[in-house]
Amino acid sequence: MKALRDPDRLLADGLAAIRAQYRVPPAFPPEVQAAAQEAARRAPSAHADWTGRPFVTLDPAGATDLDQAFAIEPAGVDYLLHYAIADVAWFVDDDGPLDREAWARGVTTYLPDGKAGLYPPVLAEGAASLLPDGPRAAVVFTTRIAPDGGAVLAGVQRAVIRSRAKLAYETVADDDLPPGFVEIARRIAAAEDHRGAARVDPPEQEVERDAQGRFELRFRPLLPSEKRNAALSLATNMAVADLLQANRTGLFRVMAAPEPRAEARLRLTAKAFGMDWPAAAPLAQFEKTLDPLDPRHGAFMLAVRRAGQGASYVPWRAGQTPWHAAMAATYAHATAPLRRLADRYVVRAALAVASGQEVPEAVRAAFERLPAVMDKAEARSGQIERAAIDLAETAILAHRTGEEFDAVVTDLGETGARIQLCDLPVVARVAANGTIPGAAVRVRLESADPARRTLAFKHTA
Length: 461
What we know:
Radius of gyration: 23 Å
């Protein structure tokens, strides 16, 4: 949940408690702020001049920490995708105050009422961000996109770029975008289908107040512009991963497919929502039938994301092929260095390899340390997101204490039966002796406690 519309701050106390519980830093230490101010004055001096190329950015309307800009160039039947990534390493020295603070944070932490950035705003939302108010330092990945969606990295170099426009997902029209944008996204999506990728893009959960002042949960499906922009990032990350793997270095994003038990739970969840999942259809095939505009499908897509074994990072190892099951490919993270610590080092490695240089020792050493640091940071970020969703669910159901709901048992454990409500995307636990997975049950909401972010149900039938 990345957005919470709560103009009267009725959930402010709960969000403040989450920040305190997970020790979300409220600000940057003075020495880090001072280092950021000094770094922001650093002018690019090892960069080619690409300011004549028509780069644009595409992000949420209010975003100011812009990691990526792109320009597109036809090349026969192919397209050249010039994907500019904020050159964070230009501003951040190894083992300096900014670097040490970034290692402590790992990622930008998002809450519905704001974020705790990886880097101070003077960099992340200023000098290092690819805003359209002047030249910016970038590392440009040029990827050749074939008619079948195949993506091959054709070049990597430092360059100064100037964004022509800050486009917004919510308002952009196809005519605002560079020619070839829609076609490139279509090709990349076709290549995903051919590989058998099982990426899930669930809608965002938003909590709003209705006309009576009560909270309700709504889904905001991803806009076509968001999905297409994500395709450009995906293709670039895959091309970077192939380059690094071929050169026996790198840090890779890996994820195993859902275990059979998890997929069995998902089938029960689909049943809870009244969805027809043919027994012979694998999960990846069934996912292609989902419509995020349908609230039941949106809730199921969120359940699929929760059911995964989770992604992690691994450094290059001889004789091993890092694999991301959802992408059905070898994959790396390189396109969000303002928000993920690991990306800064992947970008540096790709730049060195493409330039025929040795990967710096500091980067090789970081690849060994980063998996533990990133896993810890992302686990904490996931816990914070889960706590925010729990808070939202209690707010939604607070006025419905005593009501009964239809649910389906999706799993049994030591703490009771896990249930999925049929009419809301809410998962909870209930003592339900004698039930079995897949059983339809009736439960009564006994309490909804926003302070503790807990729901208590009782099995009634």
